[in-house]
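Internal tracking record. Fields below are filled automatically when a chain is submitted to the structure queue. Please do not edit lines marked as system-generated. If the sequence contains nonstandard residues, flag them in the REMARKS field before resubmitting.
Queue: standard
Priority: normal
Entity type: single polypeptide chain
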Amino acid sequence: MSTHRKIRMGMIGGGLSSFIGIVHRIAAYIGEEYTLVGGAFDTDYDKALEFAKKLELDPNRTYPNIDTFIEKELELPAEERIEAVVVVTPNFLHYPMAKQLIEAGFNVICEKPVTNTAAEAVELEELVAKHKVVFALTHTYTGYPMVRQMKAMIAEGAIGEIQKVDAQYYQGWINPVIHDKEKRASVWRLDPAKAGQSCCMGDIGVHAFNMVEYTTGLKTAKVLSDLNTLYEDNPLDIDGTAMLRFDNGVRGLVRASQIATAEENNLRIAVYGTKGSLKWEQENPNYLYHLQEGEPMHVLKPGHEYNSEFAAISTKMAPGHPEGIFDSMANIYLGTAKAIRGEEYIDGAFPTIRDGVRGMKFIEAVLASTADGNTWTEIDD
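SYSTEM-GENERATED OUTPUT FOLLOWS
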């Protein structure tokens, strides 16, 4: 537990009807590093006030919109002002709201996708550097202890030189609606005005891509993709595969689908090296599988002394007590808190705006590759 005072936190969005808002609040509370002070929780101000009353928040720090939030908070003395703002609005609002907050000097914790375009992400990266604020992007899966153990083992050479990377994220949630014309026309994630340029790759494929670069430390140089909208009147992809070539010549694969019937959140990654391989899956996150030629498979679990320092500080419970998505998100919040306070933290403690830029450039590259007839397309960086 930190001996420092808690960071004053605000939220844009995340009110009564928000599932992801609850996830963020629980994650922030787990490490006892933050206290929720106020925010602009809903476009309906009455609902925002109802939400504030439910959480016993000061109604005077509950604002009708982000403009009022910024104006009124900046009028307060620095020692009372909200320090970190969580953006949990629909996708198309991430960029304009994050931009406003950064320019006003607030630290930002933002849901992904960070923006609708790569150019917007690059602009935010420049603004973060200019205004010297902390920006965390909640690629939640990077917070799992065994993902961090995987990252540490690969960096230490436990599997030798990387030869192949295979990541997938399969869901089936859209299958019940996609085959009905009226239903698919009513899903906001299939509306470019609200979801952005991509549905499947933008929503979950980018998570798999992020996991590839996070765990391996490799940088993707180019992609060749094949995306599927299934129906001509459906504007956004709901399934796709992207082959990757990294800057050192190694090959990889990202597979993503939202029509993988009956799948839930089947995110998996396997990294194969010259000396062995490591495999992890999100639906059983406490197990990291280490395979070596001629050896029994080793299964690593959180909370044990054989794990790295990074995995150890990311584990909150004794061995045998499962930790899940809230704990993973909490580790990102913990790393962000250290950065806000100017304390030392391990590289990779939270995804940054750089991860957001990389993710948006990946999304645009796979879209361009498919549009160009499935050709190799560079990720310009």
